[in-house]
UniProtKB/TrEMBL annotation:
The name this protein goes by in its record: Putative rhamnose biosynthetic enzyme 1
Pathway the protein acts in: Carbohydrate biosynthesis
One example GO MF annotation: isomerase activity
The UniProt record lists the keyword Oxidoreductase: yes
Alphabetized Gene3D superfamilies for the sequence: NAD(P)-binding Rossmann-like Domain, UDP-galactose 4-epimerase, domain 1
Domain NAD(P)-binding: 5-108
Pfam families: GDP_Man_Dehyd, RmlD_sub_bind
Keywords: Isomerase, Oxidoreductase
Superkingdom classification of source: Eukaryota
Length: 464
């Protein structure tokens, strides 16, 4: 219409199934009224068309010379050659495609010509390889304390990360930092807030619910954080077995919610520190118990025995596509608060029977401050967030006996016996913490950390 060139990625031989929008709308209606709950229906057409033919047809309608107007540009990476959906199941409900290609294309063109105000400026669609579709009036936010335009608080552009680089590491107070933390009422979220207070870091807790995008957007605008910490998630009460009988609730927060927050952060150019889980692995032939061969960051999850773990593994996989996310694989967290029922030590010291298996665990008192340092260093990607090495249930309880209660006794049972008193199987594994250790050479091995951050401290408290 404007005489601009019509760019085509590649040679235009890619094939797509084009369906007129009113036929699609009718398909939705048919599915709504006749479809079966829980079923999936493909909406498509078997009449496929090459991109080049579509472009030629458009030129014809506008009386343009296709030879002159069409410009072939470099293909998109991984541009699919063809998608082909079988729509028979939908047809069985009584739906059929009613609009011919020629008629549909003509109607579409006429609609665009007659309704220029509806869409506004859509010339961006003529840009080959659009990387940054700036919304009208959009600005980029700067994190050096200045903003190009204070009236607009966030960007719609999401192609560049604008998290500030850390100039000096470990300085006690950085007034430019402002953390937004999700999980105010939770164990890890609560501890993070306390550490921020201690370290003099400005922070606010998020008010939004993870699955409610607009409430997260409001948080971003109100708080204007430099970093976001996600310690929100459903973990189940009294334990993860809850997730087995509350699958949609689990998906809502742990899948839809976590992904929504990551996406909102990306849209705002923010790094999200995500407290994830290492309970997505189990010992196998390549990583046998007691071998010292731990799962690495790049290993694919192999434990989906519980619904909780299954959703966490799926989300981890999807979050890999977000370059603004730092995934921290926490395992069987332990803290110095031995009264907290979530603490792994508190749990196993209260069980009537415990299994005895070596596992990698996370000593929160040592590792949560490290997560803050990781945010300052702008680290991303997946991290095994555990102390190096493994510790077994019996080794922990031996320490408990030695430091806390000399008269403490416990009874072991086997995994098979345990299976009778829990709903879903639990993950047992060793994680390879060398990536974290390389970044933080001061990181203590699990047994040293337990002594320093948990048992010595509680021993002193008891003696005091
Ligand atoms: N504790 C563990 O054993 C363990 C181990 C490995 C990984 N993790 C992971 O670390 C994260 C934090 O664990 P935690 O032990 O601190 O959990 P927690 O004590 O159960 O706290 C969860 C927090 O998430 C919030 N929350 C739940 N659903 C939410 C939603 N839809 N929107 C916003 N907030 C929501 C809760 O707030 P409300 O009370 O308002 O719902 C609560 O503040 C979780 O993702 C968990 O999977 C925990």
């Amino acid at each position: 219409m404007q005489g601009k060139p019509l760019p085509i990625h590649g040679d235009g031989s890619n094939v797509r199934s084009y369906l007129y929008c009113e036929d699609v709308a009718e398909a939705f209606e048919v599915v709504l009224h006749k479809g079966e709950v829980g079923h999936v229906y493909n909406i498509g057409t078997k009449k496929e068309r090459r991109v080049i033919d579509v472009a030629k047809d458009i030129c014809r309608i506008f009386s343009m010379d296709a030879e002159k107007s069409i410009k072939f540009v470099e293909n998109r990476p991984f541009n699919d050659q063809r998608y082909f959906l079988d729509d028979q199941k939908l047809k069985n409900l009584g739906w059929s495609e009613r609009t011919t290609w020629e008629e549909g294309l003509k109607k579409t063109m006429e609609w665009y010509i007659n309704n220029p105000d509806w869409w506004g400026d859509v010339t961006g669609a003529l840009l080959p390889h659009p990387r940054m579709l700036m919304m009208p009036g959009g600005i980029e936010r700067h994190f050096d304390g200045s903003e190009e335009d204070k009236s607009a608080s966030y960007v719609s552009s999401n192609t560049r990360m604008l998290v500030p680089p850390t100039k000096s590491i470990g300085s006690p107070r950085k007034p430019s930092l402002k953390f937004l933390i999700y999980g105010r009422t939770g164990w890890i979220g609560g501890l993070l807030g306390k550490i921020c207070e201690k370290e003099g870091i400005a922070f606010e807790y998020g008010r939004g619910r993870l699955e409610d995008r607009s409430s997260l957007m409001a948080d971003m605008q109100n708080v204007k954080p430099t970093h976001v910490f996600n310690a929100a998630g459903v973990t189940g009460r009294p334990n993860v077995d809850w997730c087995e009988s509350h699958k949609t609730e689990t998906i809502r927060t742990n899948v839809a919610g976590t992904l929504t927050l990551a996406d909102v952060c990306r849209e705002h150019g923010l790094l999200m520190m995500n407290f994830a889980t290492g309970c997505i692995f189990e010992y196998d032939a390549a990583h046998p118990e007691g071998s010292g061969i731990g799962y690495k960051e790049e290993d694919k999850p192999n434990f989906t025995g519980s619904f909780y773990s299954k959703t966490k593994a799926m989300v981890e996989e999807l979050l890999k596509e977000y370059d603004n996310v730092c995934t921290l694989r926490v395992r069987m967290p332990i803290s110095s608060d031995l009264n907290n029922p979530r603490n792994f030590i508190t749990k196993i010291s209260r069980y009537s029977k415990v299994v005895n298996i070596p596992n990698s665990v996370t000593v929160l008192d040592e590792l949560l401050p490290i997560s803050i340092e990781m945010a300052k260093r702008n680290l991303r990607g997946i991290w095994n967030f555990t102390n190096p090495g493994v510790v077994s249930h019996n080794e922990i309880l031996e320490m408990y006996k030695q430091y806390i209660d000399p008269g403490f006794k416990w009874v072991n049972f086997t995994l098979e016996e345990q299976a009778k008193v829990i709903v879903a199987p639990r993950s047992n594994n060793e994680m390879d913490a060398s990536k974290l250790k390389n970044e933080f050479p001061e990181l203590l091995s699990i047994k040293e950390s337990l002594v320093k951050y948990v048992f010595e401290l509680n021993k002193k408290n008891i003696a005091a």
